[in-house]
TrEMBL record:
Belongs to the short-chain dehydrogenases/reductases (SDR) family. It comes from freshwater metagenome. This is Unannotated protein. Gene3D superfamilies: NAD(P)-binding Rossmann-like Domain. It holds the Pfam family adh_short_C2. Keywords: NADP, Oxidoreductase.
Length: 263
């Protein structure tokens, strides 16, 4: 392949990408990466103002982005998010399920309310967002044009979904279930040329980790082989691989971006 052919693999010009949890952290970083590759990016979260600020930052850098509010725990809002995205742009090519609710509690202090609140956002929301997006992803020019790698869904997991997580049983179990859902959807959606993959981040320097304070950050970094927290921009490469034609033969897979936490 020539150099232009290689660059074209990662080119997302003309594609519409929907990123949940897009107001900050990994969602915002992925949104910047997709926009820099040429995509139109829709950033979504519960807080519209925060998403609008992030979308404005992307536009200031020359990208194309907008904001749409959505609470992933409310199924009606999840469906409306997809409908509004397609109403604005006429298509949907890539869906990134990144929004999460990291409620902390263990088995001894679990309540039905807390369990449901966590799983509603971390598992039920992504399921029904994929369901709502499916008809539009099937019609995506990326899926209907055999010269491309197809449409794409990326579910953001956590390395905590692969081992025991005392104190975060709902979050960890939901991410583990989302991994099963990812593999099941990959097989179900393959006939429509929709690829479904996952990214499992380890410790990143995002609010979810930094809010725990310096001691927590130090302990978290220590579990990685590289002994550091990742910069949020380090999620962009794996996300671009799975969203673009560069990942045309990758589906039902999970990329662990964890500095060797699971090594």
């Amino acid at each position: 392949m020539s150099a232009p052919d290689i660059h074209k693999l990662f080119d997302m010009t003309g594609r519409v990408v929907l990123v949940t949890g897009g107001s900050r952290g990994l969602g915002m970083a992925m949104g910047r990466g997709f926009a820099a590759a040429g995509a139109t990016v829709v950033l979504s979260s519960r807080k519209l103002e925060a998403c609008e600020e992030s979308a404005a930052a992307i536009r200031a850098d020359g990208g194309d982005a907008c904001a749409i509010a959505c609470h992933m725990g409310e199924t009606a809002q999840v469906r409306a998010l997809v409908d509004e995205t397609v109403a604005r742009f006429g298509r949907l090519d890539v869906l990134v399920n990144n929004a999460a609710n990291p409620l902390r509690f263990g088995i001894g202090d679990a309540t039905e309310t807390a369990w449901d609140k966590s799983h509603d956002v971390n598992l039920r929301g992504p399921l029904f967002l994929m369901q709502a997006a499916l008809p539009y992803l099937r019609e995506s020019p990326s899926a209907t044009n055999p010269a491309t790698g197809g449409a794409s869904i990326i579910n953001v997991l956590s390395v905590g979904g692969f081992y025991g997580t005392p104190g975060q049983i709902a979050y960890g179990s939901a991410k583990a279930a989302l991994w099963h859902l990812t593999r099941s959807a990959a097989k179900e959606f393959a006939p429509y040329r929709i690829r479904v993959n996952a990214i499992a981040p380890g410790p990143f320097g995002t609010h979810m980790v930094t809010s725990g304070g310096p001691e927590f950050m130090e302990r978290t970094a220590a579990i990685t082989a590289q002994k550091r927290l990742a910069d949020p921009d380090e999620i962009i490469g794996p996300a671009l691989l799975l969203a673009s034609d560069a990942g045309s033969f990758v589906t039902g897979s999970c990329i662990t971006v964890d500095g060797g936490s699971l090594a």
